[in-house]
Design goal:
Blueprint: E1 2-5, H1 14-22, E2 27-30, H2 34-37, H3 40-43, H4 47-58, E3 65-68, H5 80-83, E4 97-98, H6 99-108, E5 122-123, H7 125-132
Parallel strand pairs: 1-2, 2-3
Antiparallel strand pairs: 4-5
Amino acid sequence: SCLITYNKDIAAMDTLFSHFYDCDERFLIIEDADTYINSRSKDGNDVMKKLLNITDGLTARREKKVIFTTNLTNLADVDDALTREGRCYSTLHVDSLSVPNANKLLSAMGVQDVTVDPSLRSITLANVYSLVAGRKVNQSTSQVKKGFGFA
């Protein structure tokens, strides 16, 4: 019950937000939102004002949630207005997993035929899902090996 966007020009997406406000979907996921949620004071982020206005409008619809995913490693880099109480309900940091924890995750997912190589020090959640999809992970860097074609 969600909408998801990877669009790089979120500032021009008025129709998506108005559709989300009126539709049955409860969640809007804005993937890789790094450049949109950076602090305005540090980076002069012009898109943040629009996002704040949109999320203010959604607070009247408490069942609606906007979820931002980011590769920012420090929550302090996110604009304070976006993370203040009443607008932001939660933040979740996903760090690399130890090999035993990655294997526990695979087991909890019901994946029986995949395990993480014990020679790895750690593995990212994205790379765990890559293993499930049948892609190889480099033993020394725990990065997905690039191949040719589509996966």
